[in-house]
Design goal:
It comes from Flagellimonas spongiicola. This is SRPBCC family protein. The radius of gyration is 15 Å and the shape is globular. The longest helix is centred in the last third of the chain and has 31 residues. Strands 2-3-4-5-6-7-1-8 form an eight-stranded antiparallel sheet. The protein has a single domain, classed as Alpha-D-Glucose-1,6-Bisphosphate, Chain A, domain 4. The protein is α+β, with helices and mostly antiparallel strands. A hairpin with a 3-residue loop joins strand 4 and strand 5.
């Protein structure tokens, strides 16, 4: 079994309250997702996140390939962190933790995603050839977009780490 991890940290020069307000609104996910993915929320984004919230999206991870993705917000600590887990979608496992920590420079936003692809050996090959690169691009896009929205940032090394767990 290959379980992979994405670990990304970014410092933003904003308050913890503003970071939480932005990140806890599911509609803002579309703002920080690459346009090429044609990301659309279908249902469940009518309020700020809460435990048990189900959100349905359509996303195009590759040209000519649309995927319906359903996530559940499983844990929320107001102002500090939340967790979303895939219920239906392209991965056989997806567990995404979002943390916000206040610092003297603003906030550190940290993402830790543990995920697994289906199809065994074929899934591992597809991960190496396509999925890993796609996820790197998505998180780099997110970093750049957040800089445009909130101003220049400091990146905490390592900015983005993809690893096999």
């Amino acid at each position: 079994m290959s379980l992979y991890r994405i670990h990304s940290k970014q410092t933003l020069p904003i308050s913890k309250d503003l970071a939480w307000e932005f990140l806890s609104n599911p509609r803002n996910l579309q703002k920080i997702t690459p346009k090429s993915m044609d990301f659309k929320i279908i249902a469940g984004a009518d309020r700020t996140i809460f435990p048990g919230q189900i959100i349905e999206y359509i996303v195009k991870p590759f040209p000519f390939y649309d995927v319906t993705w359903v996530t559940e917000i499983t844990h929320v600590e107001h102002g500090s962190y939340f967790v979303d887990e895939q219920r239906f979608g392209p991965y056989s496992f997806w567990h995404h933790k979002h943390f916000i920590v206040e610092t003297s420079k603003g906030v550190v936003m940290e993402d830790i995603v543990d995920y697994k692809l289906p199809f065994g050996t074929l899934g591992r090959l597809v991960h190496r050839l396509f999925v890993k690169k796609q996820l790197e691009r998505i998180f780099e896009y997110r970093k750049a977009k957040l800089e445009l929205i909130f101003g220049p940032t400091d990146t905490i090394a390592p900015n983005l780490v993809l690893q096999t767990v």
